Structure formats: C-alpha cells, structure tokens
Amino acid sequence: MNLDERSEKRLVGVNDALVSVVRRAAKKLPFTLFVVEGLRTKERQAELYAQGRTKPGKIVTWTMASKHLEGRAVDLAPIADGVILWNDSAKFDAIALAMYSASKELGVPVRWGADWNANGKPREKGETDSPHWELA
C-alpha cells in the first residue's frame, strides 16, 4: 500500500534515504502504515521529554538528543479506520519485517526501537519503542 497524504506530509524534512525505506516498506504491508511523526523541533522534543516528568502522562522519550531533531528518525504505526493500533504487537512486528526488508534492498541500515541491540529478539529487554525507526 502507499502512504496516505497525511503520512507523506509528516515525512517532509526526513532524510531521503529513510523516506525511501519507509515508502518501500509501506508497499510490502497488507495494512495501512501511518507516519506518526518525523522531523521534530527542539520545542516538540522538550514537550515530549517533559511528559511523565514535569507534565502528566507516561514517559515517551528518554533523550533531548533524538534523531528526530535531525530528520534521521520516524515513528510508524499500523492504522485502521483512522485509529492507530498501538497495542497490536503483531502488526508492529510485520512493520519491522517490512522495514528490514526494504532497508536491505535499498542498502540503508536502520535500527528499531523495540530491538535496540539488533539481536532479532524484540522487546526482550523491555524495549518499548515499537513505533521508532532511525538510520543506523
């Protein structure tokens, strides 16, 4: 499937090689891939960093030096009927297979937030950032 217009807009400012991987991965999936976020401003990163610390909500980022600030990271999720399927780990795993396949085909190394040590065992050490993808 192709990315929808909203997802394409969220890829503006993201590194071209990473955009190519995301677009190719989207075509490999039998469901709609949604770009939750791409390039971030420092203000947006600070807002996310404050969440769960000085603002209500759960912690969603551990750093102020995110690759999102450089356009070298994206957050991806499955979506159906306009609803992001945050709890569908099987679909996040399918996204991972598609991203790794596209990465290999294009020769663009990527790293997944659910498998930071890249050992092929997602979420084994409490890695919880299934939506996050970045250039390795």
Structural notes for this entry:
The longest helix has 18 residues, at 89-106. The protein has 4 helices and 5 strands, in the order ααβαββαββ. The chain has helices spanning 5-10, 16-28, 42-50, 89-106, and strands at 32-37, 73-80, 83-84, 110-112, 132-135. By secondary structure, the protein is an alpha+beta fold. Strands 1, 2, 3, 4 and 5 form a 5-stranded antiparallel sheet that branches. The chain is 34% helix and 17% strand. α2 packs across α4 (89-106). The model has no long low-confidence stretch (mean pLDDT 95).
CATH class: Alpha Beta
Shape: globular
CATH fold category name: Muramoyl-pentapeptide Carboxypeptidase, domain 2
Largest sheet: 5 strands, antiparallel
Give the CATH architecture: 2-Layer Sandwich
Q: Radius of gyration, rounded? A: 14 Å
Which secondary-structure class do the elements indicate? alpha+beta
SSE ordering:
HHEHEEHEE
Keywords:
5-stranded antiparallel sheet; Muramoyl-pentapeptide Carboxypeptidase, domain 2; 136 residues; alpha+beta; globular; 4 helices; single chain
In short:
It is built from 4 helices and 5 strands. With 136 residues, the chain is of the alpha+beta class.
